[in-house]
Amino acid sequence: MTLQIDTLAYTNRLRWLAPEQKLLFVITLLILTAFSRPPLQILIAIWISNWTVLYAKIPLRIYLKLVYIAILFWLTSLPALVINGINIQHLNLIQDDSIIGLNVASYYIYISHHGIEQGWTILARAIASLSCLYFVMLTIPFTEILQTLGRFGFPVLLRDILLLMYRFIFVLLNTASEIFTAQQSRGGYCTLRIGIKSLSLLIGQLLSRTLENYHQVSLSLASRGFNGEFKVWYPHRYHFSKRYAIEAIIGCVVLIKLSWG
């Protein structure tokens, strides 16, 4: 999935649009997301998704898979928000909050109305924020994001750390895939006990090989006279789009009016 995302960032239909313009657009929407209510956040998510799928021509199947992953994480945290418990002696304190519940020993376990509202608020904000971030991930190559941050005065050290982290994501995924395939071909996950043992071996080998790759990268950088800053070349073939700028400004103005209206 990561490799596919990286490929789409280089081949999407908005590739020619200046990254500064796209980043400014997304930052504005993120600020609106932070200070708006769930209905408006859902509207922001739909609008930026329209830019991603219809304008950038990102395949809908891939985009929905990314959104599904985010919703899956939300679902894992939902029970902790919705299900509450209280001593039966204090049952009168949650009369208005309890939707349905049952007695378990000396406790009353119930589904909280406030918890459902809180879960909905978290989902709306998370979907809107992630939709904005997905737009950046799928339309701007990572190295160009770093170059743009550099033009705005982002520290060189932090940019280099981000670049190395991005590079090692691919190394980590590739190494894990190779080890997992080798283990699976030898029946390493045929039973639960063997699977747990194989997983522990995979994690150990993954750490060992990652450290080895890091050492090799350090040696290669030293042999090439690394001076403390990564130099990444890319052709600056972008241009500013008045049409997209006008559409973005009008949309943001409408969202601001809806937010404060």
What does this molecule look like?
Helix 2 packs antiparallel against helix 5, helix 3 runs parallel beside helix 5 (113-139) and helix 4 (60-82) packs antiparallel against helix 5. The protein has nine helices and three strands, in the order H-H-H-H-E-E-E-H-H-H-H-H. The model has no long low-confidence stretch (mean pLDDT 84). The protein has 261 residues and is mainly α. A three-stranded antiparallel beta sheet has the order 1-3-2. Strand 2 and strand 3 form a beta hairpin. It is flat, with a radius of gyration of 24 Å.
Which characteristics define this entry?
flat; single chain; 9 helices; 3-stranded antiparallel β-sheet; 261 residues
SSE map:
Layout: H1 2-11, H2 19-35, H3 38-55, H4 60-82, E1 83-87, E2 98-104, E3 107-112, H5 113-139, H6 142-151, H7 156-185, H8 192-223, H9 242-260
Strand content: 5-15%
Largest sheet: 3 strands, antiparallel
Low-confidence runs of at least 5 consecutive residues:
none
Strand order of the largest sheet: 1-3-2
What's the total count of β strands?
Answer: 3
Total helical elements: 9
Q: Helical proportion?
A: over 70%
- Using only CA atoms, what is the Rg? 24 Å
Span of the ends, CA to CA: 41 Å
Look at the helices and sheets and give the structural class. Answer: mainly alpha
